[in-house]
Amino acid sequence: MRANFQEMAKNTTEEAKSVKKTDGSGIDSVKKELGPMGFIGVIAGIVIIIGATIFFFIEQGKNRKNAAAQDELFQAQYYFEQDSLDLAMNGDGRNLGFLDIIDIYGSTDAANLANFYAGAIYLKQGNFQSALDHLEDFSTAEVLAQGRANELKGDAYMELGQYSDAARQYESAANVVDDKFFSPAYLLKAALAHENNSDNSSALKAVTKIVDNYFGASEYNEAKKQKARLEALTSR
Prior knowledge:
Blueprint: H1 2-24, H2 26-81, H3 85-90, H4 98-104, H5 109-124, H6 128-136, H7 143-159, H8 163-177, H9 183-196, H10 200-213, H11 220-234
Helix pairs in contact: 2-5, 4-5, 5-6, 5-7, 6-7, 7-8, 8-9, 9-10, 10-11
């Protein structure tokens, strides 16, 4: 009986050693079976799957957040179009205004657009630095909207007496849009900013660009007159 007990204990010990050895070499066995490159591929695949899953949930969260922001933006836009600027900026107690949308939904497309509207409102209200701050936070691939934003920044700089910066923004607006319906008006503003900055040579370049590149624009004849005047000034 004692011999049987000793034999059982010996067998149990051997099994435990075997299990421990197997557990300890599991990863090594996988490495050996797959080879170094295969093992690396498995790890890379796991990392990709985890990364894709995280990205999916992040994007889902962003989409839900942007949809909620767009819903809030609708009412603020309505107030803006009705020229109810205080309600558009600060909300009506039930709906958010542009400033709250920016604060709550900061990284969304709706908040980006809210910066444009907030900048435009501050400009109307004579708060030119705040207008610039919000317009600088707005960007879009839509050329007409970006051109308009740059024009508004130019207007703010003009009001602040920063004529060189104003001219730069107007010329940027003209370059972004680059058509005869919008660019000539921006370039005439740029010419005025340059003149206010006592830079008649740059003003002449701005109006000359209208004459050379935008024939048929409604500002074309005005640009020709300004060109003749500025040529006379710069030749003195």
